[in-house]
């Protein structure tokens, strides 16, 4: 029911497209399996199947970026390759000097953009 759930609903309605690669799917699987999150296994399975079916699979060009968290580099590379907006709850991991031409938005900023008259 939170902001990220709204984004997933909008994605399922076709309001925008998403892009990923095998590294990102591997990271999603790892994070979603973390027992500290107590995620519903059926919901996780459905989410991952949804991404497998509907996300654009991108072969990203490696970037020479040094990231605050190296695990975030695939997200920046895929966004750059797909000419996409990177939506993250960890904006501090994508400072402008590293993100370059990739627009980085928080989930609430992304929803605001979609809701604006000139939104996606």
Beta percentage is 5-15%
Helix/sheet category: mainly alpha
Order of helical and strand elements? HEHHEHEHEH
Mean pLDDT: 92
Structure annotation, total helices: 6
Gyration radius (Cα, Å) is 14 Å
Distance from first to last alpha carbon:
22 Å
Point out poorly predicted stretches: none
Instruction: Classify the helix fraction into a percent range.
Output: 40-55%
Major pleated sheet: 2 strands, parallel
What would your notes on this structure say?
There is one protein chain. The protein is mainly alpha-helical and 120 residues long. It contains six helices and four strands; from the N terminus they run αβααβαβαβα. It has a two-stranded parallel sheet. α1 crosses α6 and α2 packs antiparallel against α3.
Properties at a glance:
120 residues; mainly alpha; two-stranded parallel sheet; two-stranded parallel ribbon; 4 strands
List the helices and strands and how they pair.
Layout: H1 3-12, E1 19-20, H2 22-32, H3 41-54, E2 56-57, H4 73-82, E3 86-87, H5 96-99, E4 104-105, H6 107-115
Parallel strand pairs: 1-2, 3-4
